[in-house]
Amino acid sequence: MPIKENLRKILETIPDHVTLVAVSKTKPIEELMEAYESGQRIFGENKVQEMVGKWEELPKDIQWHMIGHLQRNKVKYMAEFVSLVHGVDSFRLLKEIDKRASGQNRTIDCLLQMHIAEEDTKFGLDRTELEDMINSKEFKSLANINIKGLMGMATFTENQSQIRREFRQLKSIFDDLKNKIPQLDILSMGMSGDYKVAIEEGSTMVRIGSSIFGARNY
Ligand SMILES: *Cc1c(COP(=O)(O)O)cnc(C)c1O
């Protein structure tokens, strides 16, 4: 099915308060342009080099989200333009983003990635690490990052109740954190296979790739 049609169908099923990130990793410029022409302006990539290349070629009103696991030494390449970093899972990484944002005289919006999957292959912080980080003096001193919310990935499984349980857990961590940091407004959870459950459990941002652009060949 063409990209435009896929996008339209997905947008019909997500409520207005949920933002769609079109995950375009591995996909060529022409396919991103097709989504752009039907109005999509937020794209998600998981490799810095690839995102930089696409940013250089595509219209400048696109908002680029880094959704993948991020190495500190790559932050500098995207500091000029990245609009939201989803996968912040350590203080050292956050500090590097702050430093590079400062070098560009800007503030970079970030989401802290939480480990919610019962499988142990996914990255992310646990509750204790999150608490320790946000309560530290050093955290409060970072002037060029803006924590907008949390991100998480559920276990890759057919078990719907497990997926729901993991999303529900993330929502509860989000609500607790919002008591301390009231301006938080993004809960990034849900992908092609599980975004409907994620929205039912309180997601405000879904990251959808294959249901828009088709399966990826690596
Ligand atoms: C690839 C990816 C997605 C999109 O996955 P689909 O199953 O293709 O929708 C979402 N989030 C992250 C972090 C990803 O790496």
Structure in words:
An eight-stranded parallel β-sheet has the order 7-6-5-4-3-2-1-8. It has helices spanning 3-13, 29-37, 48-57, 75-78, 91-103, 127-135, 137-141, 160-180, 195-200, 210-213, and strands at residues 19-23, 42-45, 63-66, 84-88, 108-114, 145-152, 186-188, 205-208. The longest helix has 21 residues, at 160-180. β2, α3 and β3 (63-66) form a beta-alpha-beta unit. The radius of gyration is 17 Å and the shape is globular. It is built from ten helices and eight strands. The chain has one domain: Alpha-Beta Barrel (TIM Barrel). The protein starts with a helix and ends in a 5-residue tail after the last helix. With 218 residues, it is α/β, with parallel strands linked by helices. The mean pLDDT is 96. It binds pyridoxal-5'-phosphate (PLP).
SSE layout and pairing:
Elements (H helix, E strand, L loop, with lengths): L2 H11 L5 E5 L5 H9 L4 E4 L2 H10 L5 E4 L8 H4 L5 E5 L2 H13 L4 E7 L12 H9 L1 H5 L3 E8 L7 H21 L5 E3 L6 H6 L4 E4 L1 H4 L5
Parallel strand pairs: 1-2, 1-8, 2-3, 3-4, 4-5, 5-6, 6-7
The structure holds pyridoxal-5'-phosphate.
In the predicted model, the low-confidence regions spanning at least 5 consecutive residues are none
Number of strands: 8
- How large is the radius of gyration? 17 Å
The oligomeric state of the chains shown is single chain
Number of helices: 10
Percent of residues in helices comes to: 40-55%
User: What is the CATH topology?
Assistant: TIM Barrel
Enumerate the distinct ligands: pyridoxal-5'-phosphate
Q: What is the CATH homologous superfamily assignment?
A: Alanine racemase
**Main β sheet profile:** 8 strands, parallel
Structural class: alpha/beta
Q: Give me the side-by-side strand order of the main sheet.
A: 7-6-5-4-3-2-1-8
CATH class: Alpha Beta
Annotated CATH architecture? Alpha-Beta Barrel
Mean pLDDT: 96
Helix/strand order, N-terminal first = HEHEHEHEHEHHEHEHEH
What is the overall shape? Answer: globular
